[in-house]
Amino acid sequence: MYQANGLKIHKSAHINVGAADRLQLFSTSSAMLWKSTSPLQSHVKIAADGGVDYEFDPADVKTVETMKFSEESIGLHTPIGPGFRRVNIGDSFDILDTKFKICRKLGWGTHSSVWLVKDESDYYVVEVLTEYFSKATWNGQRSYFDILERIHKECSKETNKHPGTDHVVRVMYVFEFDAHHAAAMFQRVGPDVNIKRSFPYRSLKPDVGKVLCRQILQALDMLHRDCEVVHMDIKPASILVQSPLSTQEISDLLLKDPPMTYPGSAWTFISREEIQRRLQHTEDDSSVLRQVSEPVSQPLPAPPLDRPDSLTFKLSDFGDAQFLSQQTFVGRISPWVRSPEMVLDLPWNEKTDIWAFGCTLFQLLTATDLISRIPASEMAQFDAMYLQAMARSLSTTFPSEMLEDTGREDLKHITAFRDLRKPPPESRLASDIWFRLALAGITGKELEAISSFLRRCLTLNPNERPSAKELLDDRWLQ
User: What pLDDT score was predicted for residue 23?
Assistant: First the structure.
């Protein structure tokens, strides 16, 4: 960790270089522009996922300008930042001679911001990709549009239609939003199933969880077997619930609950063209920041959950998905849903989605993470403790062949990793999963059935872990 002018810089932050005399430190909520007294003698390597290894001397720092963002960091153009596009309520764009108007901000994520748009007759959802992710998609580093096309073709089959096609978010168009940003348009859906954000409940009731489980497993079965795609990012934010609102009801909602912006203004960069002009004229030392308004994310309201059989859940967010035949990276998988084979650097396939889905379902049913947060400073130490927490939560011993075949030489000297070969204490023979489901109020036969189902999803050895199709036959879902 470096420190300069009273500001701490953690080496885990992402660093990008915009020019010889500009160094940018940014996160999703704030950013700092550093102006050096001389060109920075930095050693910078930009990784495929945007992460960066770097070295620089804090003594070079002359002044600092700070930007604050309530949501995504708009205006940080690549390579200075991820390149979220500034989108304004009321903006319009054309697709195939049809004009669409931006009506409301629905949310944002690592790769994009998401907007409700309308043509003359109906509402849709548009995902505006960041400049970084747009370039990665255009130059073939990511297969996002190819995967969307594969899913769309599978969903469009007129014969032998898979039931999972009703439970994925389907793309309508992919297009250039502008010269720097790609975009995709989808049929409208409701909010994600993040309990704290979308629903007035502490956790999902088992009857709702069962409906969600059956539908998302159908989507995964179609994705894995028919599309030969691994999602790679299963989490509550990747599962949406269909909004029951009609077109007229959405119009009424926008009148009663109009789009909002955050009070005050965010500080962000001036235009790309102005930045380039100033970098060519170094005598211009005026601020490169300006104030802009920030739209508030306002997802469509969630439907009531008192009639589970009327609910439709859909799998979304395919930004990190990969074809099974083209495994090129491990994606931005949340550290709390990574499968053991991925942590151990072993061969992986679609079964890694099953592990992540088991972690996600447990979280939705109990409002807690399966594996508690682990304090660790080094990645190897963190991963060893994470593997140990897996075995502890499942009250089992790690398969010895997985530990022996691991490609992670950095783990082998860590005590927590060596302890994985020991059997669990007798005091932990009762499953931690069973106990925590009981604490969430699940009882009787339902408790036994759900606990058994989750343990199947969370089988440590991927070769023994069931497929989505096999899980659909589980007794809990019948």
Answer: 31
Q: Among 61, 15, 16, 56, which residue's Cα sits nearest to residue 38?
A: 61
CA pair distance 112, 132, nearest whole angstrom: 10
Tokens of 478: 């019948």
What pairs with residue 123 in β-bridges? 118
Domains of the chain, residue spans: 2-68+262-292, 92-190+244-256, 200-242+303-477
Say how far apart CA 337 and CA 356 lie, in whole Å: 5
Report the alpha-carbon distance of residue 376 to residue 391 in Å, rounded.
18
Residue 125: name the closest of 149, 146, 108, 139 by CA.
108
Count of H-run helices and E-run strands, the chain: 14, 20
Question: Whole-number mean pLDDT of the chain?
Answer: 79
The whole-angstrom separation of Cα 256 and Cα 191 is 19
Residue 43, pLDDT above cutoff 70: no
Residue 459: strand, helix, or coil: coil
Going 417 to 420 to 422 to 425, the CA torsion angle's sign is positive
Distances (CA, A) of 7 to 3, 10, 61, 222: 6, 10, 11, 50
Confirm if 106 and 115 have CB atoms less than 8 A apart.
yes
- Work out the widest C-alpha separation in the chain, in whole angstroms: 75
Residue 398 one-letter amino acid:
F
Angle between helical axes of 206-221 and 444-457 (0-180°, round to 10): 30
Q: Under CATH, domain 200-242+303-477 is a member of which superfamily? A: Transferase(Phosphotransferase) domain 1 (1.10.510.10)
Per-residue pLDDT, 125: 96
For 406-457, where are the alpha helices, taking DSSP H only? 415-418, 432-439, 444-457
CATH numeric code, 92-190+244-256:
3.30.200.20
Separation of alpha carbons 314 and 216, rounded Å:
7
| Residue 206 and residue 220 in contact, taking contact as beta carbons nearer than 8 Å | no
For 174-196, what is each residue's pLDDT tens digit?
999 988 899 999 999 988 988 66
Q: 97 pairs with which residues across the strands?
A: none
Q: What is the DSSP letter of 82?
A: -
Bridge partners (DSSP) listed for residue 241: 313
Cβ atoms of residues 180 and 223 within 8 Å? no
**18-36: pLDDT as tens digits:** 332 233 333 333 333 333 3
CA geometry: angle 30, 36, 40, nearest 5 deg: 100
Instruction: Decide if pLDDT at 50 tops 80.
Output: no
pLDDT digits (tens, 9 = 90+) for 205-240: 999 999 999 999 999 999 999 999 999 989 999 999
